[in-house]
Amino acid sequence: MKIGILGGTSLAKALGKRFINAGLNVVFGVRPDFDTEEAEWKIMNRLHHRICPYESAIIQSDFILICAENGYLPEIWVALKNTDTEGKMIIDCTNAKFDKKLSNGNTQLIKKAAPKAHLFKAYNNLGLDYPQSDVLGVIKETYFCGDDVPEKLRVKRLIEVSGFNAVDVGKISNASLLEAFYHLRNEISWNKQEHQNYHFKLVSI
After folding, report:
1. How far apart are CA 148 and CA 159, in angstroms?
2. For residue 6, what are the contacts with CB-CB under 8 A and spacing of at least 6?
3. d(CA 23, CA 10)
4. Pairing of strands 63-66, 51-53
5. Three-state secondary-structure class, residue 4
6. What are phi and psi of 65, to 5 degrees?
7. Residue 186 has what pLDDT?
8. Going edge to edge, which strands form the sheet with 141-146?
9. How many CB atoms lie within 10 A of CB 89?
């Protein structure tokens, strides 16, 4: 099983390290102008040549995690359209720009670009700046959604391998609800005018 992580963000690097430490094979897909000489990326690439273009990462991988900034997503849509994604599992880890209608998120665009893939949403509550947004390591869970079984069980196990509790929130149609939680925590931080992050935690009674 090979994991492809698209994007050169802090979240991409953090999740990649977790999967590598768990013994999984990981490749990173990045844009052509990405700086692979940054210290941590250089170390990860030096021994195993893990950094490659988007399309190469998609072709090599069974699981594809999209952890890129919104500005680079159009390039990823093109890469998805230009490769065979049938049967692959795509996990959208992004958050679209806030839209009160919550109807035109990144997840819907991924579905159009890769209609034959199994699509899921997860890890978006961490934010692309993770782990800087959680310096104390208090986030222990991520919410995920998707329609396909048994593929959904494989995604749940993958999340658990990365060290997070996987909370199933139902079908992929709930993806916009997960993004709403992300935007709400950002609004709380902004309104409090504090240089710190807020996160939601699920409490069972």
Report:
1. 16
2. 12, 28, 29, 30, 54, 57, 58, 64, 65, 66, 67, 68, 76, 79
3. 20
4. unpaired
5. strand
6. -105, 125
7. 81
8. 51-53, 25-30, 2-6, 63-66, 89-92, 118-121, 141-146, 165-168
9. 23
C-alpha dist (Å) from residue 32 to 10, 25, 40, 83: 18, 22, 18, 17
Residue 165 near residue 202, CB atoms below 8 Å: no
Torsion of CA 144, 146, 148, 154, to 10 degrees: -20
- Residue at 90: amino acid letter: I
Under-50 pLDDT residues of the chain: none
- What is the pTM (predicted TM-score) of this model? 0.90
> Residue 95: which of 55, 141, 129 has the closest Cα?
129
What does residue 134 show for φ and ψ, rounded to 5 degrees? -145, 65
| Spatial distance between the Cα atoms of 107 and 89, rounded to a whole number of angstroms | 13
Q: What's the pLDDT at 24?
A: 94
Q: Where is 77: in which H helix or E strand?
A: helix 73-81
Both tokens of 163, joined, read 């060290």
Strand partners, 30: 53
Q: DSSP letters along 121-158, please?
A: E-STTT-TTTTGGGTT----EEEEEES-TTHHHHHHHH
Gap between the Cα atoms of 181 and 95, Å rounded: 10
Q: Which residue has 């310096």 as its token pair?
A: 135
- Using DSSP bridges, classify how beta strands 25-30 and 2-6 pair: parallel, antiparallel or unpaired: parallel
What span, in angstroms and rounded, lies between the C-alpha atoms of 113 and 107? 10
